[in-house]
Amino acid sequence: MARTARTKERFASSLIVVGSAILITVVLAALFAPLLSSWGPEEIDPAASLAAPGGAHLLGTDLNGMDVWSRVLYAARLDLGVAVASVALAVVAGSLIGLVAGYRGGLLDDALMRVLDIFQAFPTFILALAVAALLGGGVANLIAVVALVNAPAYARLVRAEVRAIRDLPFVEAARTSGSSTWSVLWRHVLPNSLTPVRVIAPLNCGWAMLTLAGLSFLGLGIPTPEAEWGAMISLGAGDVVAGRWWTSVPPGLCLLICVLGFSLLGEGLQERADSKRR
Amino acid sequence: MTLLAIEDLSVVIHGRGRQVAALSGVTLSVGSGEVVGLVGESGGGKSMVARSIVGLLPGGSQASGHVFFDGSDVLAMGRAELESFRGRGAAICFQNPRGALSPTRTVGRQLVDRLLTHQKLSPDQAREVAAELFESVGIRSPKRRLAAYPHELSGGMAQRVMISLATGCAPGLLIADEPTTGLDVTLTREILARFRQAADAEGRGVLLISHDLASIAEVCDRVVVLYAGTVVETGPVARVLTEPAHPYTRALLRSVPDLDGRPVAVTPGSMPLLREAPGSCPFAQRCTDSSERCTAERPMARLITGEWSTACFHPKTGSLAERVHGLDDIAHARHLEQAEYPLRIGEAPSGEPSGEIEAPGKAATTGGAPYRTEVVDAREVLRVEDAHVVYGSRFGGGGHHALRGVGLSVAAGETLGVVGESGCGKSTLARLMLGLQAPTRGRVEVAGRDLAKVRGAELRRLRTRVQLVFQDPIGSLSPRRTVADAIGEPLRAAGVPAAEREARVRAALERMELDASILERRPHELSGGQAQRVGIARALVGEPDLIVFDEPTSALDVTVQAQILKVIAEVTSDPSRGAVFISHDLATVRGFCDRVVVLYLGRIVEEGPVESVFGDPRHPYTRALLSSAPSLGRGFAGAGVTLTRDLEETDAARGCALAPRCPFSVPACAEREQELRDHGGSRVACHRAADIPGLIELIER
């Protein structure tokens, strides 16, 4: 048993290492995009539209004559940024709701949970679609939309943890020390109820990225001249039939690699949390 | 006839980057019809012995030596052999019976399944046998209980089911791993008697594992004392418990407070966690008699007489009682003077021999009675008036009535003991005193102010006047905060500046005899004893008016418990502060309380000065508690009372709560509520209190 626990732990560590390595590579590529490509992301090469890979354009150009390689690199900034920012926002908002609902309980808890029920009653993507259509595109709006659809899950997660923790002796000890409710929540309850959030958040970044790309693919996300993977796939989707794979496959692969990286990292963290619990 | 013979058993567990020598050369035996007690503190290797016998060693462990059962070596058995051996050869009763029963199947089904696995029975026959088994372990209406799920059973009932599961397939050897931990004293007796019965009537061998010598002493024939994975002493129970030869056995026995109020000795230090088999005496560092030889080589078991042997180079002789009273071996006593303190000082109740003779030299160092405090100014720090607490169910209706009209008060300098069995409302009372729980009816006053009438910052300030020391020392510390943070919390909340805070935290730490290096550690890096000292330091640091100790030592090992009790005795002796000491253990309460309150099902049944409640109990329940409490000393001197039924079988909606279980109850008892009335120095809630002594005499005759 101890042996299997140890192999499990080693497995978890390797997942974390591989996942982080992928993500770090993508981040570096996004940061050093200007050094890695000679074209700007929105720079049009009038001489080449739908040029095949090779020559002046490493991965060819798209319909508008923009360099695919360069766009793929620059898009990583936007996609990663929106994914991480939206998850961070979801974690903060969700945790706060969960903290208050779980600690106070009673009517407030019931009310908050019913509101969350309404949000969770819709399939995530449909909800995102509806809200995005309502708010319109743009980076800030997209972050808000993706955060909104993810926050209820965090609220529930944190609420469950808080409910288990709030009556433990150390919380009562803090209360009898004369600490104010916020101080008890902030210093004792919250730090001890975020463990599952730490595991779920990386996994969630992957999903957030897919949601963002999906919205853009459908034309509800980032408007075209700006480089974004989902929008690029959308633009190039028709070209595949004509044998011009280079406009849509590279952004698709990038998306796949990023989601894979987040998933591996999340899985690894989960495995490690499980083996520690035992 | 020898049933089980363990020879030179060593178990090493290889963990992540470290190894632990769980057992090092353990040799012991159990015969048919014999009850052997395996005792020692946690980490001593008790459970590892049990696991070795049934071949359930944890992964990554290496065992050497032999475990002969009926002549065949368990350690060499293959899987199939082992499976038939478990259950039929040796069966084990686990510490946590409800955890060991499968929650989704009825207990009857689990028992029948086990019977069918190991015996050739038809399902109908098996059900018959199961009902008989339930009856034999004292489960009333067994047919009905067979259909119960584990969560529907009380702790005592679940342990009985466990015993029936273990005995069901007629194993030759029964192993019970701490079978009565968490059970009340009145139940403990009854459960232990079942094991004695299994040995006497059915001829089985029984290995009874416990950290509590006092409770198993009565049913054992022999005891084996483990320390750090080694057997330090083994022999007939009568000899080992009265004139132990090994210094550890002596320390262990003297660490336990007793009902007779004898002094408790404190042994500093704690059990080492060994990485490899010891090359010296593992107890040497804590032993007052250790010589160079003790640290140079490991003592092997040496025979004293017959079956009695000990692993010590200089075994002790003579009765433990005499040594405790310091009548012999003065040099030894002087050696201990720092560590020894009388837990009970004051007048002995009449008719009982004085139990508080101090060790020589003690009087000179401390001068008189330091722990029993005179109440000089009777400033009241806490008053509870007619408090009721009802835990309502969420869906309305019913609800659990945890407290039913409790009234008490604590003055500065006074220590009030609160005793009772589980479910009597002790913890609710503690929460009430701290303002963590509001009374459904009645009032709680702290420092003269009604807790219900203040709000916000004022309430928080008032709350800091009462501090709680928790039962679970590690669980009461925030897992992600350092010790410095934990102790400083009350000061931080009160707005004390950081520099002063640090100085006061250090002072509190010093008072608890803890090293400052502990400040940056987190709770999981502390031992139970250290964590409890931190808990007491946190309670003390804000200079409260009242400290409530809620079973502060019940989660600790015996020798550590004695250390903590000493600290508590010092803390409660402060005349400016009141204290409440809540415990299920009467002996501990007797140690340093001035007054005692006995709770039963949310009511106070008896209240009075320690001497009169313990020396001359008036309520039948108090008497039943006292007479069933385990004791290694003289115990309770008076006549006992045996309650007739288990708590969970009774329903006391009206009248005296004890009436359904009380051997003296008359119809009038069930008709009206009993109020506390004066009887001698105490107050008793029993209308027959005056007649009880006469009635007991009648029964005894």
Count of strand segments of chain B: 26
In DSSP terms (H or I, runs of 4 or more residues), the helix count of chain A works out at 11
Shape of chain B: globular
Please state the structural category of chain A: mainly alpha
Spans of chain A of 5+ residues with little confidence (pLDDT < 50)? none
- How many discrete domains of chain B? 4
How would you characterize the overall build of this protein?
The complex is a heterodimer of chains A (278) and B (701). Helix content of chain A is 76%, strand content 0%. Chain A is an all-alpha fold and 278 residues long. In chain A, helix 1 (2-31) runs antiparallel to helix 11 (249-277) and helix 3 (68-104) packs antiparallel against helix 4 (106-121). Chain A is elongated and about 75 Å long. Chain B folds into 4 domains: 2-220, Rossmann fold, CATH 3.40.50; 230-349 and 356-363, no CATH class; 380-579, Rossmann fold (3-Layer(aba) Sandwich), CATH 3.40.50; 601-700, no CATH class. Chain B is α/β, with parallel strands linked by helices and 701 residues long. The model of chain B is unreliable at 323-375 (pLDDT under 50). In chain B, helix 18 packs across helix 19 and helix 19 (498-511) packs across helix 20 (528-541). In chain B, 50% of the residues are buried. At the A-B interface, helix 1, helix 7 and helix 8 of A face helix 17, strand 20 and helix 18 of B.
Which tags fit this structure?
heterodimer, A: 278 residues, mainly alpha, MetI-like fold, B: 701 residues, alpha/beta, Rossmann fold, 4 domains, eight-stranded mixed β-sheet, 26 helices
Secondary structure elements and pairings:
The complex is a heterodimer of chains A (278) and B (701).
Chain A: H1 2-31, H2 33-36, H3 68-104, H4 106-121, H5 124-135, H6 139-165, H7 169-176, H8 181-193, H9 195-217, H10 229-241, H11 249-277
Helix pairs in contact in A: 1-3, 1-11, 3-4, 3-6, 3-9, 3-11, 4-6, 5-6, 6-8, 6-9, 7-8, 9-10, 9-11, 10-11
Chain B: E1 2-14, E2 19-31, E3 35-39, H1 46-53, E4 61-69, E5 72-73, H2 79-88, E6 90-93, H3 97-100, H4 107-118, H5 123-136, H6 142-145, H7 155-167, E7 173-177, H8 185-200, E8 205-210, H9 213-217, E9 222-227, E10 230-236, H10 237-242, H11 247-254, E11 264-265, H12 292-296, E12 302-305, E13 308-310, H13 320-324, H14 330-335, E14 340-341, H15 362-366, E15 380-391, E16 400-411, E17 415-419, H16 426-433, E18 441-446, E19 449-450, H17 456-463, E20 466-469, H18 483-493, H19 498-511, H20 528-541, E21 546-550, H21 558-572, E22 578-583, H22 586-592, E23 595-600, E24 603-609, H23 610-615, H24 620-628, H25 667-671, E25 677-679, E26 682-684, H26 692-700
Parallel strand pairs in B: 3-8, 3-9, 6-7, 7-8, 17-22, 17-23, 20-21, 21-22
Antiparallel strand pairs in B: 1-2, 1-4, 4-5, 9-10, 10-13, 11-14, 12-13, 15-16, 15-18, 18-19, 23-24, 24-26, 25-26
